[in-house]
């Protein structure tokens, strides 16, 4: 269980990014975080793992107060929180396998990681996960030879190599075409269901959020203005989140004939 109490972030400029946010995300739940640019979505995710330091409030994962941890304890706690980035954050000159195994750096000694000597069980797990997403044949390819969708899959697998309890996902589809975006969202949800992982997905695409997440939280001006099931998100709620607009064409489910092959089968 992730518990956020009165989380506040004010930047040195005086800008208030988060205003006393209260939130709970139970194990196994995939939650989509939506809202306009500048609403505080990315800041919230980064405050959870303290890539951004909160100004006030408390963040706890399974009862452990993350906001109170010192640097060493925080490094250990971050093993339990996998981060998936919009820009993939891969090391381009390294192979797919090397990028995936970097997810184990928090568990590996300095010299072993320096010489990229990982335990056999980690390598075997990496191959299993790469096979799960259809990338096993690309294990020895450099990351810069991959497409955007393939890079995002590598980023997902790298996060899973941490054996996390929580996934923090920041705009995973922003640089992808519509079909690949749906494949990536489907993959994230399937993997979370398979492993019982909680996830917070910061996403701009409202239709994708409603299609793949059971719960949606809307932020505006650093405050939660909507928190409910995906099917409850309609024009009045979107107006509260984004402002006045004609929302009639914004949300729609994929028609059956639009469904593509399962994400794990796509290279």
List low-pLDDT spans.
253-267
Number of strand segments: 10
Largest sheet: 6 strands, mixed
Give the overall pLDDT as a whole number.
87
Helix content: 25-40%
Inertia-based shape: globular
Number of helices: 9
Write the element-wise H/E pattern from the N-terminal end onward: EEEHEEHEHHHHEHEHEEH
Percentage of residues in strands: 15-25%
CATH class: Alpha Beta
Assign the CATH topology.
Rossmann fold
CATH architecture identity: 3-Layer(aba) Sandwich
Protein described:
The two termini are 33 Å apart. α6 packs parallel to α7 (178-195). It is built from nine helices and ten strands. The model is unreliable at 253-267 (pLDDT under 50). It has helices at 41-48, 71-78, 96-101, 110-114, 120-132, 148-160, 178-195, 206-212, 235-242; strands spanning 2-10, 16-25, 30-34, 56-61, 64-65, 81-84, 166-170, 198-202, 215-220, 223-229. The radius of gyration is 19 Å and the shape is globular. The longest helix has 18 residues, at 178-195. Strands 6-7-8-3-9-10 form a six-stranded mixed β-sheet, with helices on both faces. It has one domain: 3-Layer(aba) Sandwich (Rossmann fold). It is an alpha/beta fold and 267 residues long.
Write a compact overview of the structure shown.
The protein is an alpha/beta fold and 267 residues long. It is built from 9 helices and 10 strands. The chain has a 6-stranded mixed sheet with strand order 6-7-8-3-9-10, sandwiched between helices.
């Amino acid at each position: 269980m992730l518990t956020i109490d009165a989380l506040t972030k004010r930047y040195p400029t005086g800008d208030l990014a988060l205003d006393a946010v209260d939130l709970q995300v139970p194990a196994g739940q995939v939650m989509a975080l939506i809202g306009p640019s500048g609403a505080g979505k990315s800041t919230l995710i980064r405050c959870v793992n303290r890539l951004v330091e909160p100004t006030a409030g408390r963040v706890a994962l399974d009862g452990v107060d993350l906001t109170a941890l010192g640097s060493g304890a925080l490094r250990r706690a971050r093993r339990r929180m996998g981060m998936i980035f919009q820009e993939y954050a891969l090391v381009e000159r390294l192979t797919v396998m090397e990028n995936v195994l970097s997810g184990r750096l928090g568990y590996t000694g300095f010299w072993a990681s320096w010489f990229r000597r990982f335990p056999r069980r980690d390598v075997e797990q990496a191959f299993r996960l790469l096979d799960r997403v259809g990338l096993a044949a690309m294990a020895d390819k450099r990351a810069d030879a991959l497409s955007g969708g393939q890079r995002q899959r590598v980023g997902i697998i790298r996060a899973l190599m941490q054996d996390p309890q929580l996934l923090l996902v920041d705009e995973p589809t922003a640089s992808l075409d519509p079909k690949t975006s749906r494949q990536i969202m489907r993959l994230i949800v399937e993997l979370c269901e398979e492993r019982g992982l909680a996830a917070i997905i910061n996403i701009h695409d409202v239709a994708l959020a409603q299609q793949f997440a059971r719960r949606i939280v809307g932020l505006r001006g650093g405050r939660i203005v909507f928190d409910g099931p995906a099917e409850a998100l309609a024009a009045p709620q979107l107006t509260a989140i984004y402002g006045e607009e004609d929302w009639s064409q914004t949300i729609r489910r994929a028609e059956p004939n639009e469904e593509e092959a399962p994400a794990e089968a796509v290279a």
